[in-house]
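Good morning,

Both structures are done.
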Amino acid sequence: MLNNANHLKGLAIHATDGEIGTVDQLYFDDESWAIRYLTVKTGGWLGGRRVLISPIAVAHSDWPAKRLYVALTKKQVENSPDINTDKPVSRQHEAAYLGYYGYPNYWGGTFLWGPGYYPSGLATEVAASKETQALERIQKESADSHLRSTAAVTGYHIEAMDGEIGHVAGFFMDDETWAIRYIEVATRNWWPGKKVLVSPAWIQKVSWVDSKVYVGLYRDAIQTAPLFVDSVPLTREYEDRLYRHYGRPPYWVHEDEHKPVFSLSGA
């Protein structure tokens, strides 16, 4: 199911023994365009400290009630590595965080989440014996990171092959894989009032210095793309029309190749 990533902001995070806080920001990986962490404001419970929550921990989402339930205890969250979310999260910080919870490194495997294509099912119970392994993981990692905040990228200019077309207005994510499927583009003065969607697969590069996103599409193709309306649900029929318009293969064809096929015959 696709959801507007902006709707995650403010969602209440519930641990197995009580509420942790509310979602503040989202960090995504600018290589795979997957949301790797939620930053959570804990309020008075932890003195206003912000903590990271990985989608690996999410056990259940209740969008109508604006709640996410995580397979963590409040004590686990309280004792998690202290990370300053106002500064870039380094790969070493990530290694410390993932090692603490016993999660696999997502950058060390074949699939979107390392050993798996979905974050669910990757959580393991943390044992004290893993502390040494976690330390080794931290020491092996560099300070480089590919994490970006959706809040920081919102407002970036979108540059087509033949000129600017608008700016980043939002993101749409898959709540199973936690992959960002589309960037919402507000076209501003070029086509007043019109919004379009662009797949991260069509992005050539993101310039953090120039605050620009470069897409491998021409302006006329974007102008004639299916109109995106906020108030209308984002359906597979709309996605089909969008991909047919651009003559690009849809993401679900590629993903179907990676989904496991189970035999019920017992053979």
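Second structure follows.
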Amino acid sequence: MKDKTNTGTLYVIAAPSGTGKTTLVKALTDSLSLITVSISHTTRPKRPNETDGVNYYFIDKPEFDRMIEHHDFLEHATIFDHFYGTSKSWVEKTLAHGMDVILEIDWQGHQQIKKLFPQSISIFILPPSLEDLHNRLSTRNQDHPDIIKKRLADARKTVSHLAEFDYLVINDEFSHAVHDLTCIVVANRLERQRQVVKFAELIRNFE
């Protein structure tokens, strides 16, 4: 395994659907340099406000199966009858260039990633309450009531895997949640092993 001081850090950020994860992650990457979000491939239909190659790479099931067969995915999972996968080559290449990478994936994907990248850092995001989550899902007007009910049931299952994550952030006040995420990333960058390499010349002057 490469010395982690020479590579970027892999972050896994998971949350129940409707928690505001994507908006939080965008705010995080807008406020920090050298950090980017991996764009997943999915068989789910594109929503009106989404752009191919920006939000997801939208592909059909035969193409998804072909990518699995060719071991193109670092992880892949089925969520609400649709398939999602993370490009293996892109993530490895980006980390090798010293860029931090965020994976917005579910608990299934996190379990796969942790086996491949034990040094990865995982963050779980929760809404302030189940009632708040229901309101968010309802007001965004993207899902049929039956789907919302299914998403709420899935939220309970998702939260049951909370103990598998390193950090927990509550998205109650948006600015506070962004601050918490930023603190996690900045603290990791200030880790002694990384700083010793970055400021090797300064430290040598004191010897």
